[in-house]
Write a structure and sequence with these properties.
Order of helices and strands: HEEHHH
Number of helices: 4
Number of domains: 1
Largest sheet: 2 strands, antiparallel
CATH architecture: 2-Layer Sandwich
Oligomer: single chain
Strand content: 5-15%
């Protein structure tokens, strides 16, 4: 690998390390977080931005099966 390629790669890794993804408590605007218990796959926690992305209040998602939450979303969207 050439020296310039090493510098480019190191620079890219530095930029990646600066991404806020590694900071606890922050979710990227286009994503959401679900904490699901096993083996029943019940939603135990969810990020606050879920209402903006799914149109469902977090309180209505908690203690429901992940399948039920996703199923409700799949039925309400057209993928044609």
């Amino acid at each position: 690998m050439a020296a310039s390629e090493n510098l480019d790669r190191a620079s890219g890794l530095d930029r990646c390390a600066q991404e806020p993804v590694h900071i606890i408590g922050q979710i990227q605007p286009h994503g959401m977080l679900f904490a699901i218990s096993e083996p029943d796959l019940i939603v135990r926690q969810v990020s606050a931005n879920v209402s903006a992305l799914l149109g469902m209040a977090p309180e209505t998602i908690l203690d429901r099966s992940f399948e039920a939450v996703l199923g409700a979303q799949l039925k309400s969207h057209s993928f044609t």
